[in-house]
Design brief:
single chain, mainly alpha, 76% helix
Length: 116
Protein backbone atom coordinates (compact mmCIF):
# COMPACT_ATOMS: atom_id res chain seq x y z
CA UNK A 1 0.00 0.00 0.00
CA UNK A 2 2.83 2.41 0.83
CA UNK A 3 4.47 1.91 -2.57
CA UNK A 4 1.16 2.76 -4.27
CA UNK A 5 0.83 5.93 -2.19
CA UNK A 6 4.44 6.85 -2.95
CA UNK A 7 3.77 6.41 -6.67
CA UNK A 8 0.73 8.69 -6.46
CA UNK A 9 2.77 11.24 -4.51
CA UNK A 10 5.39 11.31 -7.25
CA UNK A 11 2.63 11.68 -9.86
CA UNK A 12 1.14 14.50 -7.77
CA UNK A 13 4.41 16.45 -7.65
CA UNK A 14 4.90 16.04 -11.40
CA UNK A 15 1.28 17.02 -12.07
CA UNK A 16 1.44 20.15 -9.92
CA UNK A 17 4.68 21.13 -11.63
CA UNK A 18 3.18 20.72 -15.11
CA UNK A 19 -0.05 22.53 -14.21
CA UNK A 20 1.91 25.39 -12.63
CA UNK A 21 4.16 25.76 -15.69
CA UNK A 22 1.21 25.81 -18.08
CA UNK A 23 -0.71 28.24 -15.88
CA UNK A 24 2.03 30.88 -15.98
CA UNK A 25 3.02 30.32 -19.61
CA UNK A 26 1.98 32.88 -22.22
CA UNK A 27 -0.95 31.76 -24.39
CA UNK A 28 -2.82 33.29 -27.29
CA UNK A 29 -6.56 33.18 -26.66
CA UNK A 30 -9.06 35.02 -28.85
CA UNK A 31 -11.69 35.39 -26.12
CA UNK A 32 -11.43 35.85 -22.39
CA UNK A 33 -14.13 33.19 -21.92
CA UNK A 34 -12.76 30.37 -24.02
CA UNK A 35 -14.82 27.18 -23.70
CA UNK A 36 -11.83 24.87 -24.20
CA UNK A 37 -9.94 26.69 -21.45
CA UNK A 38 -12.79 26.07 -19.01
CA UNK A 39 -12.95 22.39 -19.99
CA UNK A 40 -9.21 22.11 -19.35
CA UNK A 41 -9.66 23.74 -15.93
CA UNK A 42 -12.49 21.31 -15.14
CA UNK A 43 -10.54 18.23 -16.23
CA UNK A 44 -7.29 19.38 -14.64
CA UNK A 45 -8.83 20.00 -11.24
CA UNK A 46 -10.90 16.83 -11.31
CA UNK A 47 -7.66 14.95 -12.02
CA UNK A 48 -5.72 16.93 -9.40
CA UNK A 49 -8.39 16.20 -6.77
CA UNK A 50 -8.21 12.48 -7.51
CA UNK A 51 -4.41 12.32 -7.48
CA UNK A 52 -4.23 14.34 -4.26
CA UNK A 53 -6.72 12.01 -2.58
CA UNK A 54 -4.99 8.87 -3.91
CA UNK A 55 -1.60 10.10 -2.64
CA UNK A 56 -2.99 10.20 0.93
CA UNK A 57 -0.86 13.21 1.90
CA UNK A 58 -3.82 14.72 3.75
CA UNK A 59 -5.75 12.81 6.39
CA UNK A 60 -9.18 14.36 5.79
CA UNK A 61 -11.01 14.50 2.48
CA UNK A 62 -12.23 18.03 3.16
CA UNK A 63 -8.62 19.18 3.39
CA UNK A 64 -7.98 17.74 -0.07
CA UNK A 65 -10.79 19.78 -1.60
CA UNK A 66 -9.87 22.98 0.21
CA UNK A 67 -6.16 22.72 -0.67
CA UNK A 68 -6.85 21.95 -4.34
CA UNK A 69 -9.30 24.88 -4.59
CA UNK A 70 -6.81 27.16 -2.80
CA UNK A 71 -4.18 26.13 -5.36
CA UNK A 72 -6.58 27.09 -8.19
CA UNK A 73 -7.28 30.47 -6.60
CA UNK A 74 -3.54 31.02 -6.05
CA UNK A 75 -2.89 30.33 -9.74
CA UNK A 76 -5.49 32.95 -10.70
CA UNK A 77 -3.95 35.49 -8.31
CA UNK A 78 -0.49 34.88 -9.79
CA UNK A 79 -1.94 35.24 -13.30
CA UNK A 80 -3.38 38.64 -12.37
CA UNK A 81 0.20 39.91 -11.99
CA UNK A 82 1.41 38.54 -15.33
CA UNK A 83 1.08 40.95 -18.26
CA UNK A 84 0.02 38.20 -20.67
CA UNK A 85 -2.47 36.43 -18.34
CA UNK A 86 -5.50 37.54 -16.34
CA UNK A 87 -7.56 36.63 -13.29
CA UNK A 88 -10.87 34.97 -14.26
CA UNK A 89 -13.67 34.01 -11.90
CA UNK A 90 -14.94 31.54 -14.50
CA UNK A 91 -11.65 29.65 -14.20
CA UNK A 92 -12.15 29.33 -10.44
CA UNK A 93 -15.71 28.17 -11.05
CA UNK A 94 -14.49 25.55 -13.56
CA UNK A 95 -11.86 24.45 -11.00
CA UNK A 96 -14.58 24.14 -8.34
CA UNK A 97 -16.85 22.06 -10.61
CA UNK A 98 -13.88 19.81 -11.43
CA UNK A 99 -13.22 19.35 -7.71
CA UNK A 100 -16.90 18.43 -7.15
CA UNK A 101 -16.71 15.81 -9.91
CA UNK A 102 -13.49 14.54 -8.33
CA UNK A 103 -15.41 14.23 -5.05
CA UNK A 104 -18.11 12.19 -6.79
CA UNK A 105 -15.52 9.87 -8.32
CA UNK A 106 -13.79 9.52 -4.93
CA UNK A 107 -17.11 8.51 -3.33
CA UNK A 108 -17.49 5.81 -6.00
CA UNK A 109 -13.90 4.63 -5.47
CA UNK A 110 -14.45 4.45 -1.71
CA UNK A 111 -17.42 2.16 -2.29
CA UNK A 112 -15.44 -0.04 -4.70
CA UNK A 113 -12.26 -0.10 -2.60
CA UNK A 114 -13.23 0.51 1.05
CA UNK A 115 -9.76 -0.47 2.36
CA UNK A 116 -7.96 2.26 0.42
Amino acid sequence: MQSIQLSFRIILVISISIITIFSIKEVNIESSVNFLDKVLHFLGFCYLTLITWLSKILSKDLHVYVIVLAYGILIEIVQSFLPYRSFEYFDIFADFVGIIWGLIIIKILKNLYPKY
